[in-house]
């Protein structure tokens, strides 16, 4: 209990995530999601997300305190996602964090959402090896990062030139008539299909960069389904799902291991919502074993957006003596 208690607030998309962390110990991780309000639109509606954050903020913080068995006055620091994300959604979290920090008289830490996706792994697997390679794959980003130190600056080694991996899952799910967000539904459907049934294209597979491209794949799947239906054939949803998923995870794991090799790094971390994918986890493990690379993937609940990840990074910043943010920090939707 002599380590500082950090409150983490995450509102970059449609999840109001509140986390309470002491050192590397997770005390509470409470998430209120507005995903059902967005489902009928087939994507997140920013205005709806902002309003939902505003309504969920105070009750979700109180639920987290109750769960952790602590009081407001026990909080030693407040961390919040300052960006990147939806501007209006971020603003709600940043404003709330400033109010809590000011009211409690504790320091405020504005953090980068991607760095928080990396830091969360420490809650489950202990201190991250330095350096490590992190692959972040979610609905908003697909990036390979060199992580010299969780509390330090991350270097981008490559990222998607068009759609994010999760975005491709969501769009292909829509083509297959599966609900939003589509990733978990494709994952489930793929279990009864064959990943080699259809040879879908693997964008940028051999281009020598650490960048990704998923929009050609998404279009290829849509064209394939349309053509089959036009010819009067039935489409096997499990086979299309499995073959599409195989194309995505083949490229992701190939490039992640290339990054490890190029930089002589033996530790790979995978995070973000798509890291919950069962086939990605299995293939990454297989290829890491072959390459002699140690793999770390947080449990699925810590891969998707949550407040624990923000509290985890905040805790790291407090412990390493990083300077707090000013109470005037902006929400920065395009933070690199
Ligand atoms: O990290 P996250 O919760 O939010 C963003 O920052 O975007 O990621 C959400 C994304 C969605 O595109 C969702 O379809 C995808 O992660 N996702 C999955 C799985 N679970 C969530 N994609 C593939 N397989 C899954 N099991
Ligand atoms: Zn995220």
UniProtKB/TrEMBL annotation:
Record localization: Cytoplasm
One cellular component term from this protein's GO annotations in UniProt: cytoplasm
Cofactor stoichiometry and binding remark: Binds 1 Fe(2+) ion per subunit.
EC number(s) recorded for this UniProt protein: 2.3.1.234
Enzyme class: transferase
Binding site for Fe cation: 113, 117, 305
Cofactor(s) needed: Fe(2+)
PANTHER family: TRNA N6-ADENOSINE THREONYLCARBAMOYLTRANSFERASE (PTHR11735), TRNA N6-ADENOSINE THREONYLCARBAMOYLTRANSFERASE, MITOCHONDRIAL (PTHR11735:SF6)
Family according to the record: Belongs to the KAE1 / TsaD family.
The name this protein goes by in its record: tRNA N6-adenosine threonylcarbamoyltransferase
């Amino acid at each position: 209990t002599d380590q500082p208690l950090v409150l983490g607030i995450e509102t970059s998309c449609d999840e109001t995530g509140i986390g309470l962390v002491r050192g590397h110990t997770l005390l509470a991780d409470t998430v209120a999601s507005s995903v059902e309000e967005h489902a009928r639109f087939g994507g997140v509606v920013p205005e709806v997300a902002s309003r939902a954050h505003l309504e969920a903020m105070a009750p979700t913080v109180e639920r987290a305190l109750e769960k952790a068995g602590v009081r407001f006055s026990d909080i030693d620091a407040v961390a919040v996602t300052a960006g990147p994300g939806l501007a209006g959604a971020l603003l709600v979290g940043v404003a709330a964090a400033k109010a809590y920090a000011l009211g409690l008289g504790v320091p405020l830490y504005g953090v980068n959402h991607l760095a928080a996706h990396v830091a969360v792994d420490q809650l489950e697997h202990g201190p991250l090896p330095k350096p490590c390679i992190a692959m972040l794959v979610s609905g908003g980003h697909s990036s390979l990062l060199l992580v010299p130190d969780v509390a330090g600056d991350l270097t981008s080694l490559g990222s998607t030139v068009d759609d994010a991996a999760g975005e491709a899952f969501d769009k292909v799910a829509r083509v297959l008539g599966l609900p939003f967000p589509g990733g978990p539904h494709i994952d489930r459907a793929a279990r009864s299909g064959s990943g080699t049934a259809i040879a879908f294209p693997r964008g940028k597979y051999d281009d020598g960069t650490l960048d990704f491209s998923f929009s050609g794949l998404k279009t290829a799947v849509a064209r394939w389904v349309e053509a089959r239906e036009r010819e009067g054939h039935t489409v096997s949803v499990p086979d299309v799902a499995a073959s599409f998923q195989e194309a995505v995870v083949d490229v992701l794991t190939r490039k992640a291991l290339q990054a490890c090799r190029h930089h002589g790094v033996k530790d790979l971390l995978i995070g973000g919502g798509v890291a919950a994918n069962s086939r990605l986890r299995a293939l990454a493990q297989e290829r890491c074993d072959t390459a002699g690379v140690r793999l770390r993937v947080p449990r699925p609940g810590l891969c998707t957006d949550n407040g624990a990840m923000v509290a985890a990074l905040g805790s790291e910043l407090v412990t390493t003596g990083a300077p707090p943010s000013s109470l005037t920090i902006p929400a920065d939707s395009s933070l690199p």
